[in-house]
Amino acid sequence: MSGDVMPLYLTEADVDALGDMELALAAVEGAFDRQGRGVAGNVGRRRATVPAGSLNVMGGADQELGAAGAKIYGSFEGGARFVVVLFDVATGSLQAVLEAGRLGELRTGAASGISSKYLARSDSRVVGLIGSGRQARTQLEALSGVHDLAEARVYSRNPANVENYVKTMGERVDAELIACTSATEAVRGADIVVTATSAAGPVLLADDLEPGMHVVAMGSNNPVHGEVAAAAVARADRVFVDDLDGAHVEGGDLMAAERAGGLQWGQVIELGQVVAGRVPGRTADDEITLFASQGIALWDIAMAQAVVERAEAAGRGTEVP
Fold this sequence. Notes:
Shape: globular
Distance between the termini: 16 Å
Radius of gyration: 19 Å
Helix content: 25-40%
Order of helices and strands: EHHEEEEEHEHEHEHEEHEHHEHEHE
Largest sheet: 8 strands, parallel
Low-confidence stretches: none
CATH topology of the largest domain: Rossmann fold
Strand order of the largest sheet: 9-8-7-10-11-14-12-13
Number of helices: 11
CATH architecture of the largest domain: 3-Layer(aba) Sandwich
Number of strands: 15
CATH superfamily of the largest domain: NAD(P)-binding Rossmann-like Domain
Structural class: alpha/beta
Mean pLDDT: 96
Number of domains: 2
């Protein structure tokens, strides 16, 4: 991209029209691969906190993709707003600015889907979901894009939200949607379990786990919160993260397990190493695998680049002088 090209501004409506889960799965898998091969560098989340909330910044650079950037979002009393700023690594020029709420939902779901591609059993058919919010929707979309799912069981604390989730997602995926009245009911016998909540304490316990499960814990990036009990983390045969540096400072699930003596950081593996073919993923059908997903900027950059390419092809967006 030449330095005199004007950057593109894409609104939430633009991103929603241009992005989809198929695009997100490909973008995020590529980001994992390049991270694992060492040609992309990630900068973990940093927070500026005030009584009203926080400003959050995370970034990265991807040499092969040709893009670098940052995700910035404010989480204050009035709500949260997200933006991704994208630069061309060849010229250093500003390439695009994207409103990134929907982009974040897609890339987060896609990361869980990619984790299941490499860590879940290939014959996985049943998903147990704890959580029924917007993030839980893209979780199921992504898993459905990777596996031929027959059943998705859903539980959250608000039965009305569960019913709405079942109705909404029943129109988007082929799997049968089942509303559950407890977390245990949702996950019992499931091949893949996803925790997608805002809970401060554990919603998935050690007794909920069964041999062969793949668990995705994606709801918490807070060092003092965690969705998976320390004893449940200890039951996992193999533990994976998106970024080890980030997990050390905001992976509440793993930090609690380490303090309790159920986890050693030396056993934790970055998923990018698996996607890049440097470390094996699942090695036995009866393994319990855990992917603790905090979310990294390399996913945002890859997804933003893919959306920008579609926007340029479609003539969509606003050029900023």
